[in-house]
UniProtKB/TrEMBL annotation:
SUPFAM superfamilies: FAD-linked oxidoreductase. This is Methylenetetrahydrofolate reductase. Keywords: Oxidoreductase. GO terms for molecular function: oxidoreductase activity.
Length: 302
């Protein structure tokens, strides 16, 4: 399949495909952001999966309180559990127990974390999953990270060897446990690397669903800053190209183009792993929520 020539549907079809793709979107929020919003329950459809982003230094009490509030508001709260910030198995046990018992969570995003230095006993999502603690406390859905553009902090030789090995391990873990698993990707600005990666995964026998990360509406300068900080790969060129057009510098960047291309690919590929979209609200949680709801409204599906 030649990806560059793949997208040929009509505008009406694209609208329906995009609305269908986004209908099960997830989003994330930081505790300090949620604390400033009185009416968060009115921003999103009930049942939306909301990741609780664990920024380094955030007290676990704040993470648990945010998880509890989201659960009480009718959302599926999914706290981040970053391996490299956890100093011991006892700490992990405490965190997972509190998320379950106090926060009402039954879902978690298990990841290595951005810190290069390992704090304690864990250095990867796999080392956290192998403890069995998520199963012990009744977590039935566990998401892990996917890297369609690679990860230079993991594969320092610019190959994908280690991240590919990790995906195979995660598939094996899913096969030998009862956990419902999916991979959520870093935010991307181009559909091509995602589609090529997804095709490569299927060819290798991977069956884990993929939730494609995109940046919500934001100023271009904001996205450029986050893209550099988060190590976004080849799709960064999309932002660089846009930055050369002075007329677009003052307009918020929206992920509609990349989402539409992935949505069409998903609609035309029955066995695709692409399942859903995850929105990183880099330009603000309200803007991202309004965008997602607008794209999934009845008018958008018409």
């Amino acid at each position: 399949m030649k990806i560059l020539n793949f997208f040929r549907s009509s505008p009406a079809a694209e609208s329906k495909e995009l609305a269908a793709f986004l209908s099960g979107f997830s989003i994330e929020v930081m505790p300090k952001t949620l604390a400033k919003i009185d009416d968060f329950a009115g921003l999103l459809p009930k049942g939306t999966r909301v990741y609780v982003a664990h920024i380094e230094g955030t007290p676990i009490d704040d993470m648990v309180a945010t998880t509890r509030r989201l659960t009480e508001d009718g959302f599926n709260a999914m706290p981040h559990v970053p391996a490299r910030w956890i100093d011991s198995r006892a700490t992990l046990d405490t965190w997972v127990r509190r998320y379950a018992e106090e926060g009402g969570a039954r879902q978690a995003l298990v990841l290595a974390g951005g810190a290069r230095k390992v704090t304690g006993d864990f250095d990867s999502s796999m080392s956290l999953l192998e403890t069995g603690l998520f199963d012990k406390y009744g977590f039935d859905r566990l998401h892990v990270a996917g890297h369609p553009e690679g990860n230079r902090e993991i594969d320092t030789d610019d190959s994908n060897r280690i991240v590919d090995d990790a995906v195979r391990w995660k598939q094996d873990f899913a096969d030998r446990t009862d956990a419902k698993m999916a991979m959520v990707t870093q935010f991307v600005f181009d559909a091509k690397p995602v589609i090529e990666w997804e095709q490569r995964l299927r060819k290798a026998g991977i069956r884990l669903p993929v939730h494609v990360g995109v940046a919500g509406p934001a100023k271009l300068q904001t996205l450029l800053k986050f893209a550099v900080a988060c190590g976004v790969g080849p799709s960064y060129a999309v932002l660089q190209k846009r930055a050369k057009d002075v007329t677009k510098l003052v307009k918020p960047f929206e992920p509609s183009d990349v989402l539409a291309q992935i949505a069409e690919y998903r609609a035309r590929t029955p066995d695709t792993l692409v399942e859903s979209a995850h929105i990183f609200p880099l330009g603000g949680i309200r803007q991202a929520s309004e965008y997602a709801r607008g794209m999934t409204s009845p008018e958008a599906k018409a």
